[in-house]
Every structure is written in C-alpha cells, then in structure tokens.
Amino acid sequence: MKVIVVGASGTIGGAVARDLAERGHEVVRASRGGPVRVDLESTPSIDALFDTVPDADAVVCCAASAPLAPLVDASDAEFTRGLPGKLLGQVALARRALRRLPDGGSVTLTSGAFTEPTPGSAFGALVNAGLDAFVRTAAAEAPRGLRLNAVSPGWVRESLVAMGLDGGAGTPAAEVARAYTLLVEGTGRGEVARPGAEP
C-alpha cells in the first residue's frame, strides 16, 4: 500500500512513517519542507500534493496543531490560530483525498485530547471535538468503500521530554503510531482511536 504521511518530519508523523514502512508499506513523507511539500493552510498546495503523488492508496495527516492561547487575553487571531491548518486544512485534505484515492482507500486525520482542562487549551479542545465529530459524520458519506478515521492522541512522551517535562505522563510515540497503522490497515469507518487512554 502506498501511504502519504503528512507531517512526517514531526514526532508523531515520523513514528507513523517508520511504523508503516516496517509493516511493508511504501511511505511518501510530506511536509512543509523536503522533497514532497504540502501546506494545510493552502488548498492549492493540497491539490498539488495529489498531483505529485497521484497513485496513493491512503493518506495519514499528523501535521496540524492548535497552539495554546489564553481564553480572555489573546486576540481573536491568536486564539483561533489552529483554525486554518488543524481544522479546515485537515477537512480540505480529507475532501480531496476522498476524490482522488482509489476505491477502498483510507484517510486518517489527527484530532487530540486533553485528559483534564489545561490553561490555554479551550480553542484546541473545540477544534479537536470538531474534528472527531466531522470524522464520525463524514465517514458515512464517503463513497466507493473509502474509509475516514482519526487518531486522538494525548500528550506524547517524547514531546514532553523535549519540553523538559516528565515524560512518564505521556504515551510513547511508537504506541501512538501503531494506532494510525491499525486504522490504515483495518476496516473501520468513522472511528476515533485514543492511544494511551484508560480502558
């Protein structure tokens, strides 16, 4: 299977690309820099991605984030910084993938989860919930046996360590990556996987 991994230069995206490659899939690493480029805030860039890689069987998006911003003190622009890329960009990516992938293809997006309220995370929580709702609802409209799913990771261990925090509170990137692989290889539609979540 040929899989485009958007955001493959990041912690989660890199782990997903490695896991898929180890499982024998052909991985196309896409990011804002590098040989295969895409910017989720630019729909022409997303269109160009599928022109560059017209024969992909699946798309995984690990690229987008919604930065923390104070609820009251941030400007409207600062507060909604995650809207163009993480929410609308992933929706645009999914819609184009559903037009361009072959029958039975797979699209996996990234939302996210906060185990408890975190200062500055109100808009990020809104975006994550919106993505989860989009995936569950839009999957029912996906034509030709195409599948749309999402992974909703919490804190990733390696990211916490990189920020100088206790990595023990996070889920290892390899475990998060396996959740993406299982969705790509599986049969589920409209699923939201939550790696590291309490059973």
UniProtKB/TrEMBL annotation:
<dbReference type="InterPro" id="IPR036291">
    <property type="entry name" value="NAD(P)-bd_dom_sf"/>
</dbReference>
<dbReference type="Pfam" id="PF13561">
    <property type="entry name" value="adh_short_C2"/>
</dbReference>
<dbReference type="InterPro" id="IPR002347">
    <property type="entry name" value="SDR_fam"/>
</dbReference>
<keyword id="KW-0560">Oxidoreductase</keyword>
<dbReference type="InterPro" id="IPR051122">
    <property type="entry name" value="SDR_DHRS6-like"/>
</dbReference>
<protein>
    <submittedName>
        <fullName>NAD(P)-dependent dehydrogenase (Short-subunit alcohol dehydrogenase family)</fullName>
    </submittedName>
</protein>
<comment type="similarity">
    <text>Belongs to the short-chain dehydrogenases/reductases (SDR) family.</text>
</comment>
<dbReference type="GO" id="GO:0016491">
    <property type="term" value="F:oxidoreductase activity"/>
</dbReference>
